[in-house]
Amino acid sequence: MEIDKAQKLRLLVTGAVSGAVNGFFGGGGGMALVPLLRGWIGLDDERVFATSVAVMFPMCAVSAWIYRMRVGLDLGTAWPYLLGGVLGGAVSGLSYRRVPPRVLTKAFALLILFGGVRSVLG
Q1: Is the pTM of the predicted complex or chain greater than 0.85?
Q2: pLDDT at 117 over 90
């Protein structure tokens, strides 16, 4: 895939938006990244999800480090979530091709909707 200057700019803006969401809210950058990669960048579903996962790992590491330095981070509390997240990521990554992209897209949309409703009502 050859990338021209306009596409590079769109990729940079997409990453910046995702990073800002991740930094401001302590996570969730993929919620912005997935729709932008699909709609604005034009990646197919399989590449969208793979790219999002690859981008989110270092982005989350940077956000976690900054939060740790600024407000503290209770690693004792974070470890069980990290271990569960690694397990969930491994299982879903290995079974990814068994779930149709259309199902993943709808599940992702429902997850965003659920999070939005909880945030508004919560």
Answers
A1: no
A2: yes
